[in-house]
Amino acid sequence: MSDISAEALRARIDQHLIYTLGKDKPHASIYDWRMAVSYTIRDLIVEPWFAATRRTYEAQGKRVYYLSMEFLIGRILEDAMINLGLHDTIAAVLMDEGITLDDVIENEPDAALGNGGLGRLAACFLESMSTLGCPGFGYGIRYEHGLFRQRFEGGQQVETPEDWLNQTHPWEFERPEARYTIPFKGHVGDDGHWHPAETVLARAYDTPVVGWQGEWANTLRLWGAHPTELFDLERFNSGDHTAAAAPEALARTLSRVLYPEDATDSGKELRLKQEFFLTSAALQDILRRFRSEYDDMSLLPDKVAIQMNDTHPAIAGPELIRLLTDEHGLGWDVAKDLAQRCLNYTNHTLLPEALEQWSTWLMGRVLPRHMQIIERIDRDHQAATGCAPEQKIVHQDQVRMGILAFVMASHVNGVSALHTDLMRSTVFAQLHAHYPDRIINQTNGVTPRRWLRLANPGLSAVITDAIGPGWERDLDRLQGLRQYENDPAVIDAVRLAKRANKVAFSNWTARQLGVDIDPDAMFDVQIKRIHEYKRQLLNVFETVARWHAIRTNPDANWTPRVKIFGGKAAPGYFTAKTIIRLINDIAVVINNDPAMRGRLKVVYPANYNVSMAQRLIPAADLSEQISTAGKEASGTGNMKFTMNGALTIGTLDGANVEIRDHVGADNFFLFGMTAAEVQKRYQMPRHARSAILESQQLQDVLQIVAEGHFNANEPGRYHGLVYATWNHDPFLVASDYDSYESSQRDVDAAFADQAQWHQTALRNIAGAGYFSSDRTIRGYMDDIWKAKRLGNDKP
Ligand SMILES: *Cc1c(COP(=O)(O)O)cnc(C)c1O
Fold this sequence. Notes:
Blueprint: H1 6-20, H2 30-59, E1 63-67, E2 71-74, H3 77-84, H4 87-96, H5 101-106, E3 111-113, H6 117-132, E4 136-141, E5 149-153, E6 156-160, E7 173-184, E8 187-188, E9 194-195, E10 198-210, E11 217-227, H7 233-237, H8 241-244, H9 246-253, H10 269-293, H11 300-303, E12 304-309, H12 316-327, H13 332-342, E13 343-346, E14 357-359, H14 360-366, H15 368-385, E15 394-395, E16 398-400, H16 401-407, E17 411-414, H17 417-425, H18 429-434, E18 439-441, H19 448-454, H20 457-467, H21 488-513, E19 522-527, H22 536-552, E20 561-566, H23 574-591, E21 600-603, H24 610-616, E22 622-625, H25 637-643, E23 647-650, H26 656-663, E24 669-670, H27 675-683, H28 687-693, H29 696-707, H30 719-727, H31 733-752, H32 754-766, H33 773-785
Parallel strand pairs: 1-4, 1-12, 4-11, 12-13, 13-17, 17-18, 19-20, 19-22, 20-21, 22-23, 23-24
Antiparallel strand pairs: 2-3, 5-6, 7-10, 8-9, 10-11, 14-16, 15-16
Helix pairs in contact: 1-2, 1-4, 2-3, 3-19, 6-33, 10-12, 12-13, 12-15, 14-15, 20-21, 21-32, 22-23, 22-29, 22-31, 28-31
The structure holds pyridoxal-5'-phosphate.
Residues 116-117, 120, 528-529, 609-610, 613, 635-637, 640 line the site of pyridoxal-5'-phosphate (PLP).
């Protein structure tokens, strides 16, 4: 922990304001203050950062490299201040200047270099690795434009580019010495020598990631793409300005924008090039660092563990073999063996539309040398396993990256117990039979520093009062809260903390959306990417049924609810965008219906991101985790809610299963089919139709939606959606509807007893310790990376 005084901090902030920003205090804007505070905090991280690097060199420790196309970081300043223990001191220093720290914090744009859960997991992992003192690097792409900004126009999603780098990014250091040439295309000669036709330069930009109490910091190294040659001066001087700048434009497109697809595979050439760009730059960097310390290549697997976050960096297998053979002169068998012992693969989804594959034609054109290497890996693979053609890496002219990643990995992990079981029994069943020890489970987690201590200071104080300080690095200690489950004072403190968060959120929606919501109503929250398998539609249908029932019988004893939605749809995902529009359409009708006053509201703030999650999750009473069983690999939003004392209504899917085990079945609203029942249900012809015919309520809902109650000026708007629900319903909304609706009645009844509700909330918080990403990272270190902690040796 930094023990720097308030006076010293004040002096440093002044110094940066004047000499780094060139601003005279009376003229400093909030932006200037943010920059000055950020540089001040960054300076304090540099010391533990250097110390961590020195320590790793001295100990000759194994380093962990986390390769990910996405890092969904969010804001950095507040997290760094919290981890350094300086949040309150900085607030006081700024207060003396008449500046509010919250204004400074909110001036920072989110670093949104990811789509959703997968990218956020990578960010939580980096923070936990630093907290645990695990030497490591995150490798990613420095997208100029992160995930698009979402607006609603007439209820429809409109995307605009995000431009976080438009302002100075005060956290990064450019590393002019770390630059690598990344080859593409061209041809491979008969001697096996690759003659690339295009090259781009990868340049490193480092951001330190500091752990709890500032004891260790690792590096997030993001690669920016630059032209290998400056522009063509001759052409420029001859007046052909556009052509002269063409190589530069071409190179820059590589790190220009994050692909906004989540759980789908777009199969575009630029995406393949981005994946190779990240992977090759990272591997060249890893080998350079290794060679600077060791001569003996056979030590590589003892000093280097590489984690592939999903298949996006799965070209790492062939690329590492290429570098070891073509550039470092090793033979095939040795190179392949070394590569395989360094590499590991995390699978994040079993949805067939998300399993990456590239046509052999495209792979052969963009990466001709790798195509040859892949074919040779495939021959070895077939010889070793005698597998059927469908189990080969290359099948029907497609390179299947999941199989490639599996074959080239030491360990392959799923992200929840259920997901790992399904990996073994479905998509990877044959490979699992050949390599029975390769698939292991590492249930996801989230960092409690950002998702509890930072996001929910009120509840954090209640926890510290009850169980003492230090739980932030040892989250299992939350179990100690169970001894207070019959202590009315503690339960009331939990209630008051929630109530304060709800008031703060109501004030925010009033300011931002001009919508008033009652902090005493139940806040029922579903925030996540909009996807059919996540079943926002199930929630929407229940909302329509509730609206209809309230209209029919307004004086019944309704539990007031605010349905809160948040989330973006991939720009090309038509059904998801239709669901967004439907939510906004029903919101207009419901919120303007006098009969709903004090009973039901629907709010959908646009542009869900990490910062919105931090604001909303602490204010939630009910967490909607309602995906079709077997479809959500883990979920991590579910864990953040539990940690913050929301109760879950959910299916037995992903990590919900383990959350329910840890908080106790009585403290969780379970509904719906199991994964096995889902599989059986799919076998039933016309499963949706028969479910609908058995549910009068669902029939009514579908009729109301189809009749255009929520879209009077375009009555046919939702005909397609309703038709699909009757006839296709690929995620079994209809089949789970009655079970969900009935569970929602239980939720209403439970909320009416506030004392018991908050007791249940306390049990949820107490059971959340397992879902710290510190636990997950310990699992990776012990079971996969075999890496040692070099930081502090606290628990
Ligand atoms: C945690 C998080 C997610 C993942 O949420 P799920 O409910 O697990 O899909 C997505 N986006 C953001 C901004 C998050 O913070």
